Amino acid sequence: MIQELEKKGVLVPDQIKDLLNNARKVHYFNTTDELVDASTNGAENSSFEVKYDVPGKGEYVEAVVHRVTNGISANYTEPYMRRRDPGTMAIADDKPTDKEKFKDVFGYDFSKLRDETFDWLKDQELAVFFYYAGNFPVGIGGIAIAPANAGFFALGLAFLQRIIPINNMPKGFRIDSAIYVAPPFRHTHFNGKQKVIHNRLDGLHELFSYNLYPGPSAKKGLYGVLLSRGEDEGWVTTHCSTVQVISPYDNSTTFMHEGASGGGKSEMLQLIPRETNGQVLIGRNMVTGEERLMNIQLFCMFNPVTDDMALCHPSYQKGNGKLTAADAENGWFIRVDGIKEYGDDPFLEKITINPPEPLLFLNVDTKPNGTALVWNHTMDEPGKRCPNPRVILPRHIVPNVVNKPVTIDVRSFGVRTPPCSKENPTYGIVGLFHILPPALAWLWRLVSPRGHANPSIVGTGSMDSEGVGSYWPFATGKRVHHANLLLEQIISTPRVRYTLAPNQHVGVWKVGFKPQMLMREYLTRRGNAKLSSDQYQPARCALLGYELNFLTIEGNKIPSRFLKVYKQIEVGEEGYDKGAEMLYDFFRKELPQYLTPDLLPLGRKIIEACLNGASVEQYNDLLPMEYKYAFFKKNK
Predict the structure, then answer these.
(1) Over the stretch 486-516, which tens digit does the pLDDT of each residue have?
(2) HSE (CB half, 13 Å, CA atoms) of 177?
(3) At 228, which helix (H) or strand (E)?
(4) Where are the chain's structural domains?
């Protein structure tokens, strides 16, 4: 195989040659169908345990895999392994980074563990295939090397990143990255914790995955590889979903929705759920039980573009004042915790129950040869559902998916917000949606609050930060370099509009993901029409940019208590202002770390203005919305 690759001009690094030539046995895969069969150790098996001999522990079962009518279903034996641990990353090399160094954390050089990992892999039967992370030719080629019994993990990786058949490699393919999978090492070296180690060699970015949950390695780990390439070359892979939306009046608007894990990226690609009577529930008051509903006869249509990652490569840009982006993934890692019963999401239910090709389900309760149903979530304990059930959808089976770069009109940012009241004030003071000046849009991306009750990761539930662009947990380099790249991106795209949308709560109202969905409906219907000057004003909390004075969607007037949280009698100005101070404290805690000599001068001015309590208009003065591209009509 190595000789065949080299005939095609694909150079195989020496350490990978040595590993493959000395392994007990190597199985090469060219298609996801082959990996489907490997997931249960053969097409004849309907159930398979992924287990390893762990010194000091004996035989340990990591996951139980079922062959089901609609694909493969894998369930981890530990609830901890069903969510991404945000502390998985460590850096093994000596290249510039703000992340934890392996040697500093564990007290020895990674080369020792690297040798142990290769020795362990050589003693296994291996599953090997080639992938492309990105959107060829923008991205990074690589090789995946995993124990053969971890076929379900390899399948997930091959869905998320494009599997490259050996006999059909595109011209110019290079092995610039490698992912090595060694599950038992989490027990023998890391006290049972998920760990992913990045080793950035010259010409090869190595990724060592010491666990079998695809989130921190096959997905976010390789996202980190793309971010490293972008940091070196001066471009960004944004953490976002992207959708082209078409109104009933044929207006078309393209949204890029960014945010930390749980910030509503996948939900931006979903239809607004209706109640049984056809109405739309805006929210439910958690104190009084009151419900506020509205009637929308026709929803906008939309074409999905990206689910979680978008390449903003220089070759895509058109120089027209807007940002152009393309999907960085081959498959979408969709969380289905919001689907509690049949009928909650007809689109996902239909495409997952009877898909055109096998899918991979994680944390979904199944029986061998049965059907995986996305509302049957695995139970972490009796009466407690796993909050992170997943399905991986190959993007090519998604109806109306867009396969080319698109131009962005609106960049929204999503924040998980807790309930807020006078008695229990919190940062849940964000209205249905806000308009952000570009400078504030940049600041929100720098702090990227992970937010309330995050279902995707193991966490404390506090208002932690995911940092620059909300992708900082996956980046390997310098924080300030990414801050500069994001600011330069905003400066160079003055025609893009910026919004902020909460999810889960608006004050004491439980709203789910309705705010961003209603924003999508409203702004698409308006098209290029500007807001009138009396429709907005600076928010009571300047960090929220402009708040809306009124909002009407298809004849439905949205009550002002959803637009200005201090209008809610359960919150009032007192509760709102205490929540605003919590928000300011969070910004004051997170922003000073960017004030290094490498920060762009304009970035320094914006951060210092925030730390000094700037007004909304002061943010506008620092980075104006250009007059001919302005979102608002300014009264002269």
Answers:
(1) 999 999 999 999 999 999 999 999 999 999 9
(2) 27
(3) helix 220-233
(4) 1-44+82-233, 260-297+408-529+539-548+563-613
Q: How many CB atoms lie within 10 A of CB 442?
A: 26
> 304 with 402: CB under 8 angstroms?
yes
Q: Give the DSSP H/E element, type plus range, for residue 446.
A: helix 438-447
- What distances in angstroms separate CA 192 from CA 78, 183, 184, 210, 577, one per listed residue? 10, 10, 9, 10, 43
Strand segments (E) across 350-408: 359-362, 379-381, 384-385, 390-394, 406-408
Query: 525 CB contacts (<8 Å, ≥6 apart)?
Result: 247, 248, 249, 251, 300, 553, 554
CATH 3.40.50 fits 260-297+408-529+539-548+563-613, yes or no: no
C-alpha distances in angstroms, 187 versus 50, 363, 416, 529? Answer: 15, 21, 33, 58
Whole-number pLDDT of residue 450 = 83
DSSP, res 212: S
pLDDT of residue 86: 86
CA distances from 299 to 331, 347, 527 (A): 26, 15, 15
Pick among 3.40.640.10, 2.60.120.1440, 3.40.47.10, 3.40.449.10: CATH of 1-44+82-233? 3.40.449.10
Phi-psi region of 9 (alpha: psi -120 to 50; beta: other; left: phi over 0): left
Structure-model confidence comparison of residues 529 and 313, the more confident one? 313
Q: Is residue 75 predicted with pLDDT exceeding 80?
A: yes
Q: Up-side HSE of residue 90: CA atoms within 13 Å toward CB?
A: 20
Give yes or no for a contact between 407 and 243, defined as CB atoms under 8 angstroms apart: no
N-to-C CA span, the chain:
71
Could you tell me the pLDDT band of residue 126, with boundaries at 50, 70 and 90? Answer: very high
Type of residue at 561: R
Asked whether the predicted pLDDT for residue 343 surpasses 80, the reply is yes
Which one-letter DSSP state was computed for residue 45? -
Strands (E), 516-614: 536-538, 546-548, 552-553, 556-557
